[in-house]
Amino acid sequence: MTTRILTGITTTGTPHLGNYAGAIRPAIVASRAADADSFYFLADYHALIKCDDPARIQRSRLEIAATWLALGLDTDKATFYRQSDIPEIPELCWLLTCVAGKGLLNRAHAYKASVDKNVEAGEDPDAGVTMGLFSYPVLMAADILMFNAHKVPVGRDQIQHVEMARDIGQRFNHLFGQGRELFTLPEAVIEEEVATLPGLDGRKMSKSYDNTIPLFGTAKQLKDAIARIVTDSKLPGEPKDADGSHLFTLYQAFASQAQQAEFRAELEGGLAWGEAKNRLYQLLENELGEARERYNALIARPADLEDILLAGAAKARRIATPFLGELREAVGLRSFREQVQVAGGEKKKATKSARFVSFRDDDGSFRFRLLDAAGEQLLLSKSFADGKAAGLASKALQSGAELDVRSEGLSFSVWLGDEQIGDSPAFVDDGALQQAIARLHQALAPQE
Ligand code: TRP
Description:
six-stranded antiparallel beta sheet; Tyrosyl-Transfer RNA Synthetase; single chain; three-stranded parallel beta sheet
């Protein structure tokens, strides 16, 4: 059994070292497992909720795409795409919006935080709250349920959203599944041992604290950021407390056991902070230098990135398009073609086999075709002078009475009394002819 892993990256910023260690690196490693079927995507519709700067959105999409590819995501194995290239996602989002309780969404942390802030400031509770922010969890549920993900690796702040996706999916299953699980119910995965990196000042590395180390800046930018790491004021020669220093924590996230032990011994032996920063720089340069070159090459060829992402979208849509078709069926958005007239005028959905399609010929006469489940033509009727006569003939064929089928050469005709009602196309050989006759009988067998 393969496990479907899915996660989205909101495209509002430039990836930093903390994103790399905490999310990107473990996701790429996980995607290589033999039983993994990974769906990683740029959540650019979500980005629009948080950011109204088009240039920033565009830059971020490009940088994040290049980052994942430069770090070795294999797009033959994983499915890598932009959310906004999958029109089935917003469509599913609407179907889910129609079953998601408003009360459920009222309880979403992100929305509640905005409301609390407004209330505290004496503003209208919903001041500045868009419907995008309010419905954020429904769009996220659509991302997840669209691909029937089993596991969704996320940060702690997103656990509630994955739980809402479960709730909404369950509700939909209950309402429309007729006992079937239309949606797989997802589970959030929090990687406990994954490092939360400290930033330059020791707090969690985060864009909002402006304490990040760039992932693919120039070597100089990397060096400058490392120079800004805050340390204590112990002089060269004085023993340093490795475990009490976030410079050491940063080093640990990228070093082997042996490297860590050696660095610890050096710090305790009085290594100068300047020299320690140099060691960290060397370590990171080793880890990221080659990937940075790949990154720069990718960024320089945005048209190639576009092709890669469009191929990823096409791959994702091979799943999304037919699945959304099933979901539309389930809620009652169905083609009128599949409605078959049965005696009594009552409409009834065809069994899997039969489908009558009536049409008017160029000369104004009325005809119909009978198509099998795969859409292949079994029968083309003769021309009828009026629609009523054509309807009566197609009804008679579905009445369940014994069929009069006569084969001739590699085709057959169907008769009602002494009138030939229609005939089949010519089949390639006798085997195909016999099979088509069998399908005809099946298609016109009385429905239980
Ligand atoms: N909301 C997520 C975040 O901010 C990004 C995201 C969007 C996502 N859709 C998703 C994550 C689906 C997991 C699954 O981190």
